[in-house]
UniProtKB/TrEMBL annotation:
InterPro entries per UniProt: AB_hydrolase_fold, BD-FAE-like_dom, GDXG_lipolytic_enzyme
One Gene Ontology MF term: hydrolase activity
Designated name of the protein: Alpha/beta hydrolase
Pfam families documented for this protein: BD-FAE
PANTHER family: AB HYDROLASE SUPERFAMILY PROTEIN C4A8.06C (PTHR48081), PEPTIDASE S9 PROLYL OLIGOPEPTIDASE CATALYTIC DOMAIN-CONTAINING PROTEIN (PTHR48081:SF6)
Signal peptide boundaries: 1-19
Keyword Hydrolase on entry: yes
Occurrences of domain BD-FAE-like (ranges): 63-257
Keyword Hydrolase among record annotations: yes
Keyword annotations from UniProtKB, A to Z: Hydrolase, Signal
């Protein structure tokens, strides 16, 4: 009996150690594209409540979370932060662990934030990194134990804008790469997302960070992703709170309506309260949106 207890204790310790040691892999094997020499250095801010915020990202990475029993589906997570910082824990690492419970291999994307000092064209850099993340996961699918045709993209707030941009701008990838690997996500999950850069719906901080204080009309339209949906847009799952004062709920409504117009399968869950940035837990309701997500993923065949 003692030997059995000792064995179980050792197994628990090993499992815990492995859970705390998530591999972090660089997004690019060589020089990081669209970069220029600068004095910019990454800043990691560990707040009093334990939250982690990262800004001034220079070297983008993927943190890999493997489930105990993988089902072949992969999800790349884009944390939010207004294109000024990344909320890495409650919109990244915590979400990855929840996806692991569903059998999904999760990748938390630390993408570069728009910065004219360290980038040659800041408006395309986040998308460049998101598309490279999709490319990398597909190219190394066998290593990660995933199916390259089951790679989804998930984004929160401004990370939702990035995910929806990747889900609507895949036909012409950004950058100079000659890679032929598809950068179209197989499905999208958008949580209280910034969708539109229109004057009526925009989140001013996200728009300014990405395309400047006085963007051209064509830039506003290009990054208003409700206007970029086609019949090829991936199936989409949306969550938003009606009382969100930071990113108007009409962002999700506009994306959902455009999906309906183009016959793109979409499911949306709206909560009357919850505000913005609630991550996995909307404290105003007993309903858990990650359970709704699990049902949607199961119905789509991504958990089998």
């Amino acid at each position: 009996m003692r030997k059995l207890l000792f064995f179980l204790l050792c197994l628990l310790i090993v499992t815990f150690a492995q859970a705390q040691n998530q591999p972090v892999i660089p997004l690019y094997s060589g020089a990081v594209p669209n970069s220029k020499a600068s004095s910019i250095q990454e800043v990691v801010d560990k707040q009093a409540n334990g939250s982690i915020r990262i800004s001034n990202v220079v070297t983008p990475t993927l943190t890999v979370y493997r489930p105990a029993k993988a089902n072949g589906t992969a999800v790349i997570i884009c944390p939010g932060g207004g294109y000024a910082r990344l909320a890495m824990d409650h919109e990244g690492y915590d979400v990855a662990r929840r996806l692991n419970e569903m059998g999904i291999t999760a990748f938390v994307l630390k993408y570069r934030l728009p910065n004219a000092q360290s980038q040659t064209d800041k408006s395309v850099v986040p998308l460049l990194d998101a598309q490279q993340a999709i490319r990398l996961v597909r190219q190394r699918a066998a290593e990660f134990g995933v199916n390259p045709s089951r790679v989804g993209l998930m984004g929160f707030s401004a990370g939702g804008h990035l995910a929806s941009t990747a889900g609507t701008h895949f036909a012409t990838p950004v950058g100079d790469t000659k890679e032929k690997t598809s950068v179209r996500p197989d499905f999208l999950m958008l949580l209280y997302p910034v969708i539109s850069f229109s004057d009526e719906l925009m989140h001013a901080g996200s728009r300014t960070s990405l395309i400047g204080e006085k963007p051209a009309t064509d830039q506003i339209r290009r990054y208003s992703n409700e206007l970029q949906i086609t019949a090829q847009t991936p199936p989409t799952f949306l969550v938003h709170a009606a009382d969100d004062q930071t990113v108007k709920v009409q962002n999700s409504l506009a994306f959902y309506e455009a999906c309906l117009q183009h016959q793109v399968p979409a499911e949306m869950h709206l909560y009357p309260q919850g505000g913005h940035g609630f991550g996995m837990l909307n404290k105003t309701t007993k309903d858990n949106w990650t359970d709704r997500l699990q049902n949607w993923l199961d119905a789509g065949g991504w958990l089998r």
